[in-house]
Amino acid sequence: GSNGRARMGMAEVTMTLDNSDNRLPIAFAEVVIARRAYRSGENEYFLNGQRVRLRDIQDLLDRSGLGRRTHLVIGQGLIDQALALRPEDRRELFEEAAGITLYRHKRRQTLERLEQTAANLSRVRDIIAEITPRLRQLERQAERARHYEETAAQLRALLLVWYGHTWHLGLSRLSDAHAAARHWQETIGRTEAQIEAQQAALVSLRERQTVLRRQLYEWRRQLEREQSEHTAL
């Protein structure tokens, strides 16, 4: 911003490269690289309008020999400047000029991934060590659960057999009880019939007894009259 112009929230710079000779390993005759910088500190990178990572752009340039410090034209005094560099900086410059920076960069990335993988493996081993006792406990619980299910299945089978036997035994006993009840009902019926017959005979005998008593009474009176008449003579 300035005194006459407000501050902007974003700035963008674009670089267009001629790739008609296919120096860049990408299927475009013209390569447009853009960077957007936001006031928040965030950066975005674009390759032919597609958002990419900074690493993708660096790899593309490194593979074409256009690294950050590659010099395509050696100007006057550049050799003296190169010789004045520290040994590690001079080696980096020569590696970029020789085109091996990309491979060193990939080697570094590979080593970083290997270190990350080793850290992940170490973490996995720690997690395995933490959960192994729990897994063993769960295995014991699962074994007890399987044993319980097997025992429960055997018990259900035995109960089915026992209930079936008890059911059939109950049906047999019920049938026997019904037969005994019918037998006793028939016996009671015959006994009641005999009692009724005996009661009828008893009534008949009592009636006969009453008739005989009256007849005996008449005979006695007649005998007494005859005895009185005989005495009077």
TrEMBL record:
Signal sequence range: none
InterPro entries, alphabetized: P-loop_NTPase, RecF/RecN/SMC_N
Lineage of producing organism: Bacteria, Bacillati, Chloroflexota, Candidatus Thermofontia, Candidatus Thermofonsia Clade 3
Source organism superkingdom: Bacteria
One Pfam family this sequence matches: SMC_N
Protein name per Swiss-Prot or TrEMBL: Chromosome segregation protein SMC
SUPFAM superfamilies: P-loop containing nucleoside triphosphate hydrolases (SSF52540)
Gene3D superfamilies membership: P-loop containing nucleotide triphosphate hydrolases
